[in-house]
Specification:
alpha/beta; eight-stranded mixed beta sheet; 8 strands
């Protein structure tokens, strides 16, 4: 059965809105406090100050909110006046999905109207305004800015690349983004391993998100890290296809902007997506916090 992408987008936005409301102030504070400890233990603010990148998931907020909060603390504690959030842009229309598949099959990205970078302050396409990927980042960012009483928080710029296609250097708008990144810290997001029956895996190979399943997920995540470390943008694009990772464009762009990086997964959990996709378990998403250090 063909996926109803328009309905899925509405369902996800509704789900995230409910999840954030259910957190309330107490739940939000709990994640912020846990995230602060995580950021401090790994000195994540230093990673950003030294030109590295932090990548957090955008899965279920109750599962991975503390990972997102850790990146919020790191960005605020870095002392930077500008933060660039390089976000995933999901294919919530069939035309966007067709374009993504076309590029993966070798067609020039420039053949498609979606090729480029969207985001705050940029004229042009506005698909990014309906994407759920930034919702939890904005939630914890705004909550922590308020809690700290910051009247002049760092400037927050959201950027949504699409169809990097192994050539992030050719994306329309990349030169402007390079200029912005010179005096900014960079964070990004990725749900880099979607797995199970609801994501098209057959029941005989679908793994539960137990110790064995998470170990498999980490192996796949580390494969992607190795490819991106090498600067193999096309290889990373194709890895994301096979891994069912949504970060093919965001990953290529932050690696291009920052140059050589050394990556690792420093925290890993998961979100059950069975109900969202009306599919039997196991249907789940790995939620990983990555640290990419500047070499």
């Amino acid at each position: 059965m063909e996926l109803d992408r328009d309905q899925l987008q509405k369902d996800i936005i509704d789900l995230y809105t409910r999840e954030h409301a259910a957190l309330g102030e107490a739940g939000t504070l709990e994640h912020l406090n846990r995230g602060h400890k995580l950021a401090e233990s790994f000195k994540l603010a230093d990673t950003l100050k030294e030109g590295g990148v932090l990548v957090f998931p955008h899965a279920g907020v109750d599962d991975c909110g503390y990972q997102i909060a850790a990146c919020v603390h790191a960005a605020l504690d870095s002392g930077a006046d500008k933060v660039i959030f390089i976000s995933v842009l999901h294919a919530f229309s069939q035309a966007m999905e067709d374009a993504r598949r076309g590029v993966a099959a070798g067609k020039p990205a420039s053949d498609f109207e979606f090729w480029g970078i969207q985001g705050t302050g940029i004229d042009g396409r506005k698909e990014w305004t309906g994407d759920h990927a930034p919702m939890s980042w904005r939630h914890f960012w705004n909550a922590e800015v308020k809690r700290r009483g910051l009247t002049k928080p760092p400037e927050m710029l959201e950027r949504f690349p699409y169809l990097a296609g192994g050539k992030p250097q050719e994306l329309p708008g990349i030169t402007d983004l390079q200029e912005l990144a010179k005096d900014a810290v960079i964070v990004s997001t990725a749900d880099a391993f979607h797995h199970g029956i609801g994501y098209g895996d057959s029941p005989d190979v679908a793994m539960n998100p137990d110790e064995q399943g998470l170990a498999k997920a980490k192996l796949v995540l580390e494969e992607g890290i190795s490819i991106l470390e090498a600067g193999d943008y096309w290889g990373y694009n194709q890895h994301c296809v096979s891994a069912k990772s949504d970060a093919r464009d965001a990953g290529q762009v932050f690696r291009y902007l920052r140059g050589p990086l050394k990556g690792r997964v420093i925290d890993l959990t998961y979100t059950d997506a069975s109900e969202l996709y009306n599919a039997p378990p196991p249907t789940w998403v790995a939620a990983a916090l990555y640290e990419w250090k500047k070499i």
